[in-house]
Amino acid sequence: MLRVVVCVSGGGTNLQAIIDGIAQGAVFHTEIVRVVSNNPGARALERAKAAGIESVCVSPKDYGDREQFETALIRCVEEAGPDLIVLAGFMVKVPAELIQKYKNRIVNVHPSLIPAFCGTGYYGLRVHEEALKRGVKITGATVHFVDEGMDTGPIIMQKAVKVHEDDTPETLQRRVMEEAEWVLLPWCINLIAAGQVIVEDGRVTVTE
């Protein structure tokens, strides 16, 4: 059984996609053992509670400095004994100590086709605003392993989404979530649980 800790900051729609995938049998041999949020007002915490999943808030406002916050965050994650850490809309830079300890065991979903519209400052609606400003015809989402960079880790899987002429950042964001993020993230977790994801020399191979 793959033990998963999901880290969230906001509404938790990607968390819900994972919860639903497990409940519906689309994600096998996987259990969400804890949901961790940096935001006490995150709706994701309500989603976790509704699903009977333990949830914990570790807010930077409760600590004197960044180092104390990161120490508490690391402890909170490690206490749950995860095999995999999933960043599902987590707006906190993951501590380097955690990345090193869980190398190729932390995954993130990003709302663009990396390397387009990613990196520092590219999160939320800004990703879709920049995509529309650039006039791209295709966008999408990427699930990747997390390394010390920003959106630079090995790519596991990507899914394209068509951009419509009348799109706004809000409509495009919604379609990318529905057609790509909510599909890709549970499926990638399922592949990892099945032992089908291999990382070699910074590249991912998905075995049959």
| Helix content bin | 25-40%
Structural class: alpha/beta
Number of helices: 6
Order of helices and strands: EHEHEHEHEHEEHEE
Q: How many individual β-strands? A: 9
- So what's the overall shape? globular
Strand content: 15-25%
How would you sum up this structure, described in words?
The chain is of the alpha/beta class. Helix content is 36%, strand content 25%. It has six helices and nine strands. A seven-stranded mixed beta sheet has the order 3-2-1-4-5-6-7, sandwiched between helices. β8 (197-200) and β9 form a beta hairpin. α1 packs across α6 (169-193) and α5 (125-134) crosses α6 (169-193). The longest helix is centred in the C-terminal third of the chain and has 25 residues, at 169-193. It is globular, with a radius of gyration of 16 Å.
Q: Key terms for this structure?
A:
two-stranded antiparallel sheet; 6 helices; 25% strand; alpha/beta; 9 strands; 7-stranded mixed β-sheet; 208 residues
Short description:
With 208 residues, the chain is α/β, with parallel strands linked by helices.
How would the blueprint of this fold be written?
Layout: E1 2-8, H1 13-23, E2 30-37, H2 43-50, E3 55-57, H3 66-79, E4 84-87, H4 96-101, E5 106-110, H5 125-134, E6 138-145, E7 155-162, H6 169-193, E8 197-200, E9 203-206
Parallel strand pairs: 1-2, 1-4, 2-3, 4-5
Antiparallel strand pairs: 5-6, 6-7, 8-9
